[in-house]
Amino acid sequence: MTQIRSVVLGCGSYLPERVVTNAELAARIDTSDEWIVQRTGIRERHIADDDEFTSHLAIKAARAALAHARLDPQAIDLIVLATSTPDNTFPATAVAVQHGLGINHGAAFDLQAVCSGFVFALATADNFLRTGAYKRALVIGAETFSRILDWNDRGTCVLFGDGAGAIVLEAQTQPGKTSDSGVLTTHLRSDGRHKAKLFVDGGPSSTRTVGHLRMEGKEVFKHAVGMITDVIVDAFNATGITAEDINWFIPHQANKRIIDASAHKLHIAPQKVVLTVDKHGNTSAASIPLALSVAVKDGRVKKGDLLLLEAMGGGFTWGSALVRW
Ligand code: ACO
Q1: 247 is catalytic
Q2: d(CA 21, CA 80)
Q3: 182-324 has CATH 3.40.50.300 classification
Q4: Of the residues 46, 56, 68, 115, which is catalytic?
Q5: For the whole model, what pTM was predicted?
Q6: What is the CA radius of gyration of the chain?
Q7: Would you list the domain boundaries of the chain?
Q8: What is the spatial order of strands in the sheet that 136-144 belongs to?
Q9: Is 157 in the active site?
Q10: DSSP conformation class of 114
Q11: Whose Cα sits closest to atom 8 in ligand 1?
């Protein structure tokens, strides 16, 4: 039976110009390139200028995605922007992006699921498109995590970076098979019992400040692989798709050891894993569309390829998506 699917028309990304290497961090705090690379796989990250906001990064990524899709911004009637580092407490950064793109119809809103934000935003947009409520959506992950880092805390500040990525989705009628183009399935989970393991120690209602990121790294690591692989198995069970069918595994880029262990547990071959954590660090909600854009640009991802996306982050939240390019 035919089915409406959210088909990907294009993707794009933007990284701030300034690159900060591990060596540069080691000159400022008690760390080393060797420690950071061995524990995380990160070698460098991009950091936004003081006058460069999350919305600015998002607008550049959105423009790139629209150009890749060969689409005028006016064709977009839904913007879902995942971020934990909005320009302001309100209005939503998505509204600034909407305005920056010259769009004043449809709806635009932010979504907060920390590092899982892009998968949550993709699932949200997909559900709106499949009901027929909207026709074309921009799904954006954009972050300036550098603003909420405690630059004296070596356990966290070496891990994160800034950036933005976006995709354009269009509702299209498809045959209703797993060979269809577009989003085939999404699976979202959260469990607030873990909320104190990775959080920001400030907020408008509690401290009236922005706060800094705090993390029990070992605790996050302990739960990550199990949660990630469980929610991917949910996606496999829902579709009958297996690890062998996957062309590209495009995980949230938090830590190479988490990615390697997840791929290993799922029997996904290392050559199918898209890795950008070395160059981008953990850009939270932006990391999946940033990695996707790299793999599309360099020609790895081709029309018809089956992509497996996953993320896990603060909350904890975690999720997976299967998307045919
Ligand atoms: N440089 C040098 N030494 C450091 C650094 C650093 N940047 N950071 C911590 N250390 C030290 C610690 O002080 C500690 O020293 P001690 O033994 O003298 O007390 C030692 O290294 C070991 O510290 P641990 O925190 O136990 O190190 P661990 O091996 O757990 O690695 C890490 C830390 C990399 C954060 C790891 O726990 C991890 O990857 N966790 C997952 C967290 C993650 O990826 N979070 C991202 C957000 S969540 C997400 O997106 C999935």
Answers
A1: no
A2: 32
A3: no
A4: 115
A5: 0.97
A6: 18
A7: 3-174, 182-324
A8: 3-14, 162-174, 136-144, 78-82, 107-111
A9: no
A10: G
A11: 155
